[in-house]
Structure formats: structure tokens, C-alpha cells
Amino acid sequence: MATWDQLRALLVESGAHPDDVDRFDVAASRRRFLTKAGKGGAALALFGFGAGAGPALTGLFGRGLIPVAWAQEAQEQEIPGKPGMVVHNTRPINGEFPPHLLDADVTPTPRHFVRNNALVPERAANRDPQGWSFTVDGEVNRPLTLTLDDLRRMPAVTMPLLIECGGNGRGFFDPKVRGNPWRRGAIGCAEWTGVRLRDVLNQAGLRESARYTAHYGEDPPIGGAQPFSRGIPIAKAMEEHTLIAYRMNGRDLDPLNGYPARIVVPGWIGSCSQKWLTRIWIRDQVHDSDKMTGYSYRVPAYPVVPGSRPPEEHMVIATEWTVKSMITDPAENTRLQPGQHVAARGHAWAGEDRVTKVLVSTDFGVNWSEARLRQLSNPYAWYRFEADLQFPDMGYYEIWARAFDDKGNAQPFAQPWNPRGYMGNVVHRVPVRVGV
Ligand SMILES: Nc1nc2c(c(=O)[nH]1)N[C@H]1C(S)=C(S)[C@@H](COP(=O)(O)O)O[C@H]1N2
Ligand SMILES: [Mo]
């Protein structure tokens, strides 16, 4: 059996950047390396190449370009309801799908990522709505308790909405930061059905003193942690696209995505979208749970030196996403023939802002052309972009996509760094090989 060090040496010898190899030295994949890879050839196979492909790899593993290994991991672990999910953890469950599996305008439930801080509640696992309700209390005139039937009797809305984990893209942070090394797939745009949160809050009657929400769910914490809880300012809670959802893509919620009901706060980091909802506490101050304070879901108020630790009082709550895009077709590492035309496509989104254009490049950012761009439904669903590309000559290329918003922001080429790896929005680079 090969040791990790032997495999690491082999991959580095084959042209992989040591930092990129180490990025995969996370407990889960390490275990798989040790059990699955008997010798060097197997290690290369894990990275998507046949034995003897060593020399051809040189140059392919530029920094940040090591997606093949990751695609391979997808087959390793099956989570019920989420076939093919790339699983970072099983306790709690955390997993994502690679961009080429997220091409649909509306993300199918089996392809919607899962980000859990705690265990899946038994009620959700059993899909048993008996006895479930949630309360609204705190700075309200009429505290409420609502059952699933109560929710279903209220006016319902249905719309595709983006949920994206604040840590999506963390895997591209350099130096590495702790936390799930999400690549690009901790995002989904499912069609959610539910009631507007503001309808529920209006029913409870917000007091003048109401300032912030505090959300609670019934997922049992692991290892003595506080129950996972975050909140949002009242203005965002009252926004018409902020929902309490009880249907996802026309069905009951998936147990992993919050059955029987969850909050959906589109455009903001996913942690605002409390799953397995049990309580909305209206507060007269900014919510101050563990996950609202310190370095949790907070970013420095100014750009910091990569790897440094800014003082806690310089950290501010992470809220809405900034402009981003993702190429969903072709898949990373697609092989093409010289002269081949490629209809490239993907998604763009911009938190609270509007996407104004997406530029694409096939020559490492030297030349750019504007993709066709369409807003698909509401501003909190992703936009579609498409571009006709051609690769006349053989060689190694990358398709780059860069989205711009109506505030004049664009995606960066190098990921700005923060201590916990939030809000990653570096340009997506899809490697393609033409006749090589
Ligand atoms: N009760 C509860 N709600 C939660 C979480 C959690 O751990 N417990 N995780 C949050 C985080 S960090 C994210 S990114 C989203 C993920 O939603 P999804 O698993 O449906 O994709 O749920 C949020 N809601
Ligand atoms: Mo998240």
C-alpha cells in the first residue's frame, strides 16, 4: 500500500503544484488515497489519467487547476437523495456538485448542495410533519405558533431562488483556511414554494423596537456546540423574495435541505437560510449567537494581508453575495479537436445587484468577448450566459468567465483573502485540451 507521502511525491513529480496536492490532503480524501491507491499508476488514475501519462501532465496542474481529482471523488460516497455528490464530510453532512452538473436553470433537488453544521433531525429523516410547528416571538405584538397546515393556508408564492454558502469557493483561498474546502458547487437555484416571511411577521405585528431576526432549527448540535442560529436585519426579512419555504421544486423539502420548512434569504450567504425551522425570535438588537460573532460568518472590514489575523473588532457580518459566475458547459478538462466550435454556457449572479455583462476569454485573459446574457426570472435567480467559442489550434487552453454588475464591480482574477474563506468569487477557469 502506498503511503500518502509516496503518492504526494509522485504527483509533484508529475507536475502537480505541491500546494494543490496538499489541498487534497483532507481527512476524507486521504483515507481514500490510502485504501484505493495501491501504486503510482492508481494514483494517476485517481487524478483522471492512465498510467504512463506522467510527462503529459506537466503544466496541466497550474495553481488552482486540479479539478480532475475532485471529480473522481464524486463516485466515492453516496448520500441518500444526493447521488454523485462530492462529499466533504458525513458528520455533519456537507457536499456539493461540480459546475457541469449544475447547468440547469432550476437546480434539481438531488443536485442541490447540502451544508449542515449539525445532525439531520429525526423528523426530517422520517419525513414526519406530526407535531412540527414554529414560533415567532420577541419584539412582536402577537407571538405566533404556526403548523405546516397553517402555512399552507396562507398565500403561497413560487420562485427560483439562489442559496449559496458563504464558504463557496473557500478551496481556492491561498493560504488555505479551515472549514469545508468548497469549490464552486455550494450553490443551488431551486424553485421554492412558501409564504413570504413578511406575511408571517405582519401577522405577528412587529413592534417599533424590532431590529433583527434570530433563526433556530431542530437539528441536534454535535459535540456541545450552540444550536446553529443566525439572523438578518428586519428590512431584508420584509423583502418580498424572503420566504418560509415548505416546497422545493414542487415537492416537500428534501430531509437534507430543511424538511418540513426553512427560511430562504436569496442573495445573502446561505447561513441566513435556516433549515428545519422552529423559531423566529425578533430582537431589538443585532443577533449575537456564536455564528454571528467573532470570526464566524464575518469578514474583515478592509482587505487584509493573506494569512494574517485581523482583530475581532475589525470583523463585520457577511451579508449579501458579490458578483460571480460559473461555467457549466463545457466541463472542466474537456478534450476538443482543433477547429472545434464550442457553445459555452453558464450562470452569473450578483447578490442584491444586477448582472450587466459576462466577458469570456480563451487565451488566459488577453482577449475577451461579451457573452449573450439573459435574466431568467427574478433578480435573485441566476442569469444565463452563452458564448460561441472556437479553438483553432492544438494545445492547452482555459475558458475564463468574468461577470460585471451594475455597481461597476467585476470578479477578481486572484482571490482576495479573509481568515475564514468567505465570499470567494474568483474568476472561473475551465481547462480544456485541444488535440493534446
Ligand atoms: N438549522 C440549520 N439551518 C441551516 C444550516 C444548519 O446547519 N442548520 N446551515 C446553513 C448554511 S451554512 C447554509 S449554506 C445553508 C445550506 O442550505 P442547503 O443545505 O439546503 O443547501 O443552510 C443554512 N441553514
Ligand atoms: Mo453556509
TrEMBL record:
<keyword id="KW-0500">Molybdenum</keyword>
<dbReference type="Pfam" id="PF00174">
    <property type="entry name" value="Oxidored_molyb"/>
</dbReference>
<feature type="domain" description="Oxidoreductase molybdopterin-binding">
    <location>
        <begin position="127"/>
        <end position="289"/>
    </location>
</feature>
<dbReference type="GO" id="GO:0030151">
    <property type="term" value="F:molybdenum ion binding"/>
</dbReference>
<dbReference type="InterPro" id="IPR006311">
    <property type="entry name" value="TAT_signal"/>
</dbReference>
<dbReference type="Pfam" id="PF03404">
    <property type="entry name" value="Mo-co_dimer"/>
</dbReference>
<dbReference type="InterPro" id="IPR008335">
    <property type="entry name" value="Mopterin_OxRdtase_euk"/>
</dbReference>
<dbReference type="GO" id="GO:0008482">
    <property type="term" value="F:sulfite oxidase activity"/>
</dbReference>
<keyword id="KW-0479">Metal-binding</keyword>
<dbReference type="GO" id="GO:0006790">
    <property type="term" value="P:sulfur compound metabolic process"/>
</dbReference>
<dbReference type="GO" id="GO:0043546">
    <property type="term" value="F:molybdopterin cofactor binding"/>
</dbReference>
<dbReference type="InterPro" id="IPR005066">
    <property type="entry name" value="MoCF_OxRdtse_dimer"/>
</dbReference>
<protein>
    <submittedName>
        <fullName>Sulfite oxidase</fullName>
    </submittedName>
</protein>
<dbReference type="GO" id="GO:0020037">
    <property type="term" value="F:heme binding"/>
</dbReference>
<feature type="domain" description="Moybdenum cofactor oxidoreductase dimerisation">
    <location>
        <begin position="319"/>
        <end position="434"/>
    </location>
</feature>
<dbReference type="InterPro" id="IPR014756">
    <property type="entry name" value="Ig_E-set"/>
</dbReference>
<dbReference type="InterPro" id="IPR000572">
    <property type="entry name" value="OxRdtase_Mopterin-bd_dom"/>
</dbReference>
<dbReference type="InterPro" id="IPR036374">
    <property type="entry name" value="OxRdtase_Mopterin-bd_sf"/>
</dbReference>
<keyword id="KW-0560">Oxidoreductase</keyword>
